[in-house]
UniProtKB/TrEMBL annotation:
This is Calcineurin-like phosphoesterase. InterPro entries: Calcineurin-like_PHP, Metallo-depent_PP-like, UPF0046_metallophosphoest. SUPFAM superfamilies: Metallo-dependent phosphatases. Residues 8-204 form the Calcineurin-like phosphoesterase domain.
């Protein structure tokens, strides 16, 4: 059987220049809106806070408020905003791109390997994107007609999806305007079935939902079999807002990471995942992405990976193609059996803005998750 270890992931989003104290964990994920409008001084303050945070890995995406990080948007609309001084998007982006401890993802995937002797020694694949449906004049937005191509870029073997926008119908209920999540992102999540889907954007929708997928494609009806709403144990007390998905708590996530160590591949036996040796002549995406100890390495050849992703996406929803295989060597049917459940998390830190009222802050959301332990073969 695959060896796994408990890993704590701390999720937060929409901090908007706030730098709260963070609970302990192995991995920190920030789902965007680091600032109010993305000035260099705002970003510098936030990046310094993130770099000081004690986590093995820190995964960050931008949000619609982080205007200078969207170079194309800033060139067109930046002059319409008030700035404390002239802003240079390139300099602003370097704060994140050149950070030695932050993995900044802008619609890209990365394989993460935790290597601290005191840590869990686990690995996972994450996809991060700053985009949200167009609503007003903000950065990193897309029109509805662009959504399908945008979200088809999520690789099939992704374990954790981090998007600024929520998916439609899950952790997306707005109370003061007509914003909502993205329907085509929900369809993409049904195709990929990641372990976690982490978002923010809609502050009042902060919370967690357990989504159990059915075995059919989205075109045949609802992709969901059932949905369970999380009860936050941290409300009104000093306890952490914690989601425990480990076996010892009796609520193990019905999903398995599809990222494997070098030289191994997944197979299904009696509906259980096992690890078996793989011939060294076979090359997979994971083999090419495998990083040196303790580092992260996104895809190196975007054109090749985009073409491969497009081919896989076509096979994922096609009916009667039992031989269609994902990048990790499983048939579509096998992958669905291995990945029945996704936990959707809106981790907005800043509560809803109420005119004349005080600002409310939410606790970061911690997730205890069993992830595969990685090994380099001698």
């Amino acid at each position: 059987m695959q060896e796994a270890a408990e890993t704590r992931i701390v999720c937060i989003s929409d901090t908007h220049n706030q730098t709260p104290k963070l609970p302990k964990g192995d991995v920190l994920i920030h789902a965007g809106d680091l600032t109010n409008q993305g000035s260099y001084s705002e970003l510098k303050k936030t990046v310094e806070w993130l770099e000081k945070a004690d986590f093995e890995a820190k995964i960050v995406v931008a949000g619609n408020h982080d205007l200078t990080l969207d170079t194309v948007f800033f060139e067109k609309h930046g002059s319409g905003w008030k700035w404390p001084n002239p802003q240079d998007p390139s300099t602003c982006r370097k704060l994140l791109l050149e950070s030695k401890s932050i993995t900044y993802l802008e619609h890209k995937a990365a394989s993460i390997y935790l290597d601290s002797p005191e840590g869990p020694g686990t690995c996972f694949k994450v996809f991060g994107s700053p985009y949200s449906p167009k609503h007003g004049l903000w950065g990193f937005q897309y029109e509805r007609g662009e959504a399908s191509k945008l979200w088809n870029a999520i690789p099939l073997d992704t374990d954790i999806v981090v998007t600024h926008t929520p998916p439609a119908g899950h952790c997306d209920a707005a109370t003061k305007d007509d914003r909502s999540g993205c329907e085509l992102l929900l369809q993409a999540l049904h195709r990929v079935r990641p372990m976690l889907s982490i978002c923010g954007h809609i502050h009042e929708a902060r919370g967690v939902e357990f989504v159990r997928w059915n075995g059919d494609t989205a075109e045949m009806g609802s992709p969901k079999e059932c949905v369970e709403i999380w009860k936050d144990p941290g409300i009104g007390n000093k306890k952490q807002s914690l989601v425990n998905l480990t076996a010892k708590e009796g609520r193990r996530l019905d999903n398995y990471s599809l990222l494997t160590p070098a030289g191994t591949h997944f197979s299904l036996t009696s509906d259980a995942l096992t690890l078996e040796p793989r011939g060294q002549s076979e090359k997979t995406t994971e083999d090419r992405e495998l990083a040196v100890v303790g580092s992260t390495l996104p895809s190196q050849d975007d054109d090749e990976n985009e073409a491969r992703t497009a081919a896989v996406c076509k096979g994922a929803f096609a009916q009667g193609q039992d031989a269609a295989r994902s990048e990790i060597g499983l048939t579509v049917a096998e992958q669905r059996r291995a990945r029945r459940e996704t936990v959707m998390i809106n981790a907005a830190y800043l509560g809803p803005r109420i005119a004349g009222g005080s600002i409310h802050f939410n606790k970061p959301i911690g997730v205890d998750l069993e992830l595969p332990v990685w090994r380099f073969e001698a």
